[in-house]
From TrEMBL:
One of its GO terms (biological process) is canonical Wnt signaling pathway. It comes from the Eukaryota. GO terms for molecular function: cytokine activity; frizzled binding. This is Protein Wnt. Keywords: Developmental protein, Disulfide bond, Extracellular matrix, Glycoprotein, Lipoprotein, Secreted, Signal, Wnt signaling pathway. PANTHER family: PROTEIN WNT-2, WNT RELATED. One of its GO terms (cellular component) is extracellular space. It is found in: Secreted, Extracellular space, Extracellular matrix. InterPro entries: Wnt, Wnt2, Wnt_C, Wnt_CS. It comes from Latimeria chalumnae.
Length: 358
């Protein structure tokens, strides 16, 4: 096993294996291992997923490396919210029981994780790290856009391969289950995959005398994953609550006033908890001790974040760069300055109505 893969396996397995509770095991846990041995030993995978894992161990490595990226993006998108996409130590599915609830948060996690696999696999294809794919083979010859004719060149990201692999691997288990939650997962997985392709952009290089664009060579490239994260975060805000239709083959809106979900929308069945207090059954860690913004009027405000319980204020010394001056040539010299700032953190519940619900 190469050092990078071993590092991924050891760090995550040491966190997750010891004392992991018996909940639905997710490919999120398996993907980070990047090892054929783990493909055999991890619980929860169906035969098709194991076959793909054994057949393409290099793809598993790219998925494992990409897991950290989409979790980081999820946490960026919700950093100022009561639910902050926190991962749970010693849990097989990384997110604890919050994923077992068919909520908006579960919908977002499934979508962003599916998008993350597409992005990671496609990137690995373009970088020549996978034996089963490379640059998009269909981007050959000449074509034109609104700026005129151009030749395909460079390395167009093979996003269609990333989508096909993500669909085959991620969707396999839910296609087999065929229950209401499986249909929800499949829908949100597809929404995530579509989001990556939505932000493909044409990049070009000009050729000609004195830098003129008499000839252009162009390729398709994925945008930074932040664009996908921002887009799915907006879809989360507009997620549509649904119920199963009468024949059990699809969805209908729970409230007739809302529009029917498109393939790009996120869907969910159950209302979310308020995430104010620790509730292990609901997967809520509560907001006690969370940092809040006393002057904000948004989701990170102390009033919203602390659920009306109030907050504590502490004085914290931090070091910053100050009195920066440009020196010829070519450096900026700064002094290290210390300043005291107020940090506000949410109070813990005090009365019986706020007891830890277990």
């Amino acid at each position: 096993m190469c050092p990078v893969v071993w590092g991924i396996w050891f760090s995550l397995s040491s966190i997750l294996l010891w004392g992991a509770p018996e909940v639905n095991t997710s490919w999120w846990y398996m993907g980070a291992m990047g090892s054929r041995v783990i493909c055999d030993n991890i619980p929860g995978l169906i035969s098709q997923q194991r076959r793909l894992c054994h057949k393409h161990p290099d793809v598993m490595q790219s998925i494992g490396a990409g897991i950290k990226d989409w979790i980081r993006e999820c946490q960026h998108q919700f950093s100022h919210h009561r639910w902050n996409c926190n991962t749970i130590d010693r849990d097989h599915n990384l997110f604890g029981r919050v994923i077992l609830r068919s909520s908006m948060e579960a919908a977002f996690v499934y979508a962003i994780s599916s998008a993350g696999v597409v992005f990671a696999v496609t990137r690995a294809c373009s970088q020549g790290e996978l034996s089963s794919c490379s640059c998009d083979p269909k981007k050959k010859g000449s074509t034109k856009d609104n700026k005129g004719n151009f030749d395909w060149g460079g390395c167009s990201d093979n996003v269609n391969y990333g989508i096909r692999y993500a669909r085959a691997f991620i969707d396999a288990k839910d296609r087999k289950e065929k229950d209401a939650r499986a249909l929800m997962n499949l829908h949100n997985n597809r929404s995530g995959r579509k989001a990556v392709k939505r932000f493909l952009k044409l990049e070009c290089k000009c050729h000609g005398v004195s830098g003129s664009c008499s000839v252009r060579t162009c390729w398709l490239a994925m945008a930074d994953f932040r664009k996908t994260g921002d887009y799915l975060r907006r879809k989360y805000s507009g997620a549509i609550q649904v119920v199963m239709n009468q024949d059990g083959t699809g969805f209908t809106v729970a409230n007739k006033k809302f529009k029917k979900p498109t393939k790009s929308d996120l869907v969910y069945f159950e209302n979310s908890p308020d995430y104010c207090i620790t509730d292990r059954e609901a997967g809520s860690l509560g907001t006690a001790g969370r940092v809040c913004n006393r002057t904000s009027r948004s989701m990170d405000s102390c009033e919203v974040m602390c659920c009306g319980r109030g907050y504590d204020t502490s004085h914290v010394m931090r070091m910053t760069k100050c009195e920066c001056k440009f020196q010829w040539c070519c450096a900026v010299r700064c002094r290290d300055c210390h300043e005291t700032v107020d940090v506000h953190t949410c109070k813990a519940p005090k009365n019986a109505d706020w007891l830890d619900q277990t």
